[in-house]
Write the structure tokens for this entry.
Amino acid sequence: MMLMIREDDLTLVLAKRRNFIGVRPLWDSILIFITGLFYIPAAVAIPNEICKWIMLGFGVLVTGYGIVEICGRRFTTENLYKEIAGMNIISSSIVAIAQPGIPDSNQYLLYYDAGWDCWFFPNRRSTPDVSDDERDLLNYLNAEFKIPVQDCALDIHGTEESTKYSTEHDEERHYLYRIYAGDVQSLPELWSLDGEFTVGGHRCKWMTISEMLADSRIKEVNYDVVTAVRDNL
């Protein structure tokens, strides 16, 4: 899995955990604790009082250090990975396609996702380079919504960042959205301008931004995307 993380965020978490990086394995800490325990009875058996108290103090220090190592510094490489992975930025390209052939139409193409029980703008995971991303988006729109590549023009309008809780993954996730306007020159063969229609196995329909924001499910799941489209187009 490739992670996209801001350099400043990574530097911050590594600085925060610097005292835990390279900490000895658990068994080493247990051995230190056991060694300290052996020092204590050995110290008691020493006849010289000064040496006895020196050895006893040393045994207590070693035993205490072992306890601290075992209980207080259990930060593993797995913990560090999870913390860093939690900063991963998921890049997603969103395409707002207005009704073809209708000047200044304020209705946009949405498709229904049964898994989410929600309507979404066409979208896919972003390709890092923008020119490659546009090419891959055109191929995606052609494959999934039967839009001929030569009939569609994409124009990137901006980017938006968002952090929200993912119920699917049971964790907070960080997103970077690329907002595209999609201009389809003519109505594809299987599309309709009225009501719902099915294309490429997707239930599709047209909605205005106001209608999306008035829909309780869209607002719950995808409010950040809808407002990002509204603010960038």
User: Anything to note?
Assistant: The first strand starts at residue 89 and ends at 97. The CA atoms of residues 10 and 34 lie 37 Å apart.
